[in-house]
Amino acid sequence: MEREFICIICPNGCRIKVEYEGTNIKKIKGDECPKGKDYVKNEITNPLRVFTGSVLVENGDFSLVSVKTPVPIPKKHLKKIGEITRQIKVEAPVIIGQVVASNLLNENIDLIATRKIENRKFLSSQ
Amino acid sequence: MQEKEVIIIGGGAAGLAAAVACKQKGIEDILIIERGDYLGGILQQCIHDGFGLEKFHTSLAGPEYAQRYIDQVKEKDIPFLLNSMVVNLTPQKEVIVVNNNGLAHYQARAIVLAMGCRERTRGAIGIPGARPSGIYTAGVAQELINLKNYMVGEKIVVLGSGDIGLIMARRLTLEGAEVIMVAEKLPYSSGLPRNINQCLYDFDIPLLLSHTVVNIEGNGRLSSVTIAQLGKRGGIIPDTKRKIVCDTLLLSVGLIPENELSRETGIVLDNITGGPQVDERGQTNIPGIFSCGNVLQVHDIVDNVSLEAEYIVEGVAEYLEGKLIKEQQIIVELGEGLRYVVPQKLISRKDTIFSFRVNQPEEKKVLVFNDGKRIIKEKFLRRVNPAEMVRVKLSSSELEGIKRLKVRLV
Amino acid sequence: MKATNNYYDVVIIGGGVVGCAIARELSKCKVNVAVLEKEDDVSWGISCRNSGVVHAGFNNKPGTLMAQFCVEGNKSFAALCRQLDVPYKKIGKLVVAKKKEEIKELQKLKQQGDTNGVDNLQIIDLNEVKRLEPNIEGIAALYSPETAITSPYLLTIALAENALDNGVSFFLNTQVKSITRLNNSRFKINTAKGEFISSYVVNSAGLYADKIARMVGIKKYRLYPCRGEYHILDKNVSWLINHLVYPVPQAGAGGLGIHLTPTIDGNILVGPSNEYIKIKNNFSTTSPVMKMLSAEARKFLPLISPGYIIRSYSGLRAKQSPSSEGGFWDFVIEESDTVDNFINLIGIESPGLTAAQPIAKRVVEIINKKERLSPNPNFNPSRKGILRFEEQDEETKKALIKQDPDYGEIVCRCEKVTKKEILEATNNPLGARSLISIKYRTRAMMGRCQGGYCLTRIIEILREYFDLNPQEILLKGDNSYLLTRYRRNKENELCKKKKLLSLAEELPV
């Protein structure tokens, strides 16, 4: 089979032409860096994507904290994880990299915060 | 009146990078003025990843990228004002700021304009029809969803394939809405190829090229839009009109540098970029007023915004030391194939990064710089695309002694 | 003054500029008045979608009510605006001839104006045209220094607020469904919000006045919607013109031609077109007309480019004349000869804004003749609008922020509207809550970014101050919800619960 992939690893968006059979790459053209080859390999076997989204924060200076999966996860889980983020709530403060949910779908999928959230500032009583 | 060495208007990607760079250059007395209630600007609502590959060699979400700069601003004790709007800037670099504490005057020695950009609206592109609710620019929808926890709609048509539109098509899908299609007026997308792949194809959202919205229907809330295919010359092909039932139209039809303040100050703008006309240090026609980031030209990658900000700060430092001297000004002449160039003029012959956008997608092109007599640089480009800014550096030795500079894409 | 039950001496149907002017005029007397408005705010029909021109009165046929009331209205308009704190600017108007033949038409117009009692009209030559309007193409013009501009919706809102202050009741979202005559000769008015009983009905329902009249068996009126589309140009190009600039009107046309109108806020309007349509609430814009407007405007003003357009919209005229005939039919302002105490206002189109006050006075005269109303000794003629921060001098600005820090928060960047102004608008005395109501009162979201920066902030202010669910935040009345839900599911469940709770609370015990 022959297919063209647009690599999503960086903004270059290389168009990579691949000839393959099953999961076996026979010929590859257009990859400008080694990451391209890995990307195509994954696309053929098990396409992976980083999930990003946001979850609600209690008592924070902002009401939402943005999150992502620290590593790419199987593409097929993206929507499901999206749904889950709409159920989660975390308590402020939150630091970047903090795990806000772990082992989702029993697939070892974690979510980590990508924004720093501080405690809501209360006005001091007069 | 308070005096400041440098006042930076805008605390987004460009302003933060400029502030940090100023400090690194030894400029002590800086003030960042931000109208929003947090630093980081639009990056805070760009919760998707893919930022920082060039600058930090890793893929970051927008807020993570912003935080790297915010941390530096705080570490370096750079003062900033939040919830503060600059309502006036004079050519003498006096700044009037309004916030909850009052109305304050500042006198700066140099100004960095870093106000970013705004989105083109329905009114500006003239879509006919009714005026219901449910029409959003992509960035406003992004803010409402990613920062305010609201959903703007459930069945969505996106007009325009700019990057924010593509990113929002994916976001809306992940948040449980149905994105029916993305329609693009041009025969090619105005977003990055990787975004078309991971935002549309991943979720089976069709991209209809050479299609546009020709009417909006709905009483109260939007109930449908009519789309049609466009012919080669851009005219509507009548029998391709069809009604798409939806409750939301998302517009991703272009960004406009936010230069209202600059205009009022008397800064000369470039009709094509919408940003100030600048020299190789980002200096506008008013000496000591500099510009960088999306207020200068709309970028597609934030890393380039940071780099641009850091780069123009070289000029800010030189200006403050009295070293930014106009040797001999030349206007950069734009030849075929190119839509614009920044900087528009050169006042010295130092190392200079030129940014371009091309007119249309093409393959195997050469960017040629000549001085009217001879070619001084050529750069081969395997693929060019209006969505992707082309950046080329010319060294002082390449620019030395030139009296003209002409660029074209052949 | 407020009636304790659903009885009012006078019920006014329609909260347009005329209905609100009548309400205010009536509030000068001891009389119970209610205004029923089908929309979520006053002025949303014809009154918010016109050029905002205070006409001098030379366009109307001598001897007509239109001519009489227009001239009268023009002369008292400045004083009215002063009382009500409504912007008004006497900028003057030029009717510009482009060909020699048109100069004769200018002379006719001047003569008509002189007959009507319009002051200071003069025909000016090419040099004078160029001196007054350097960017305009033309060979001569009729110059009318008495023509002025105002804000049609701010005037309507001001009239309503002042009437409210003087005891008139306003019912928004109250569409009239039917009217019956009771045995005691009172009217029973069935509406979306229940029944009203009144001794008089004033039918100022604009385009729907024919329909309201038919509810009591008056079948002789018919109103045709005639659409006019406009472009709004960016404030950046307000320097293009100094006066209202009109073409020479075409004989038999139902409008005054595509003209250029500086608005009170510094934009320029291009329009309106003139097109009879079928449906009375079709405020759509259309591609051919949008193109035509740009082309027509360029004939006067070659400098106009499409990039200056920030928005397009349309308004409707309530025409008595069918499309086959065109032109202007005179205002009908009369008590029905078949239904006593039922006063009809039919075909109030241009110059209805200018004439609103004289029309209102005429209606009160009709009632007064029969009832001998006694004056309301407590009538307060003045009303204060929302203070515009941006228009104040620096010392005042500083004092305002000190007094209330919300003045220091600029929410709308383009029009420089502060949080304080937004809050005052959301707390407007009429209780209008839609975003458009805030927009009309403050100008927030009216600038070149069209709410790109401030929309989110205004939504937050609305939600915070009125404790609204996302679905309850409306753009413009019923069903125009901006948001569909909270992103996070849990909050939506709470949201549903909350709604049920409040419904239960509202049930009578």
How does this model look, in words?
The complex is a heterotrimer of chains A (about 130), B (about 400) and C (about 500). Chain A is an alpha+beta fold. Chain A is built from 2 helices and 10 strands; from the N terminus they run βββαββββαβββ. Chain A has helices at about 35-45, 80-85; strands spanning about 1-5, 15-20, 25-30, 50, 50-60, 65-70, 75, 90, 100-105, 110-115. The longest helix of chain A is centred in the first third of the chain and has 12 residues, at about 35-45. Chain A is elongated. Chain B is an alpha/beta fold. Chain B has 3 domains: about 1-120 and about 255-325, 3-Layer(bba) Sandwich (FAD/NAD(P)-binding domain); about 120-255, FAD/NAD(P)-binding domain (3-Layer(bba) Sandwich); about 325-410, Immunoglobulin-like (Sandwich), CATH 2.60.40. Helix content of chain B is about 20%, strand content about 35%. In chain B, the strands form 7 sheets. In chain B, strands 1, 2, 5, 6, 7, 8 and 20 form a 7-stranded mixed β-sheet that branches. In chain B, strand 3 (about 50) and strand 4 (about 60) form a beta hairpin. The longest helix of chain B is centred in the C-terminal third of the chain and has 19 residues, at about 300-320. With about 500 residues, chain C is an alpha+beta fold. In chain C, helix 2 crosses helix 8. Chain C starts with 6 loop residues before the first strand and ends with a helix. At the B-C interface, helix 3, helix 4 and strand 11 of B face strand 18, helix 9, helix 12 and strand 23 of C.
